[in-house]
Amino acid sequence: MRFITGIALVLIIGIVGYLLYASFQPVHEPLDLLPLVKEETPEVEETLEEKPPALWMEKAEISLVDYRNRLCWQLTLNTGEREEEFYFLQGVEGKYFPPAGGFFSVRAERGRITKEFSHLRLEGKVVLSREDLTIEMEELEWEITGACLYGKKMVLSNKEMAVYADRIQLDLDLERIRTDGTSRWKLGGG
Hints:
Layout: H1 2-23, E1 55-65, E2 71-83, E3 86-96, E4 104-114, E5 119-130, E6 133-143, E7 148-157, E8 161-171, E9 177-187
Antiparallel strand pairs: 1-2, 2-3, 3-4, 4-5, 5-6, 6-7, 7-8, 8-9
């Protein structure tokens, strides 16, 4: 009987010990899995001039597709910087692919893309070219759902003509032009 009482006492002491041990363990709160990387606030106040950009890219490649998932732009950037709603681009080169096929070489001093990659604006000296056609302008805009390219201060030239216009709309194949504002047309060579 003493043996059974001893075992019962050891069992009771073990259970009470385990309950005391478990009650004094620190409570762990569940971890947030999203986002996996949390942004930390800097301890030292930084001025806007000293604050580094949220994302900085050098020698990056970007591809843009339209709403049908067709490749439209394949661009290489010297530098890119993301701030708020846009990626700001410097030294842009690459290709534009019209729906009818082929491609145009692209060069621009700078530009910007929305963070959703749905709107592209190239600025500075923008050049689209292929063997038979060269288009130079100060600004070019493209939208993912758009049916036109929009430009400002354009010079379009080929062997048969040259067009100078303040504002233009080009179809996506760069075959039809609509000018807004003043324009000059020179037939017989560009």
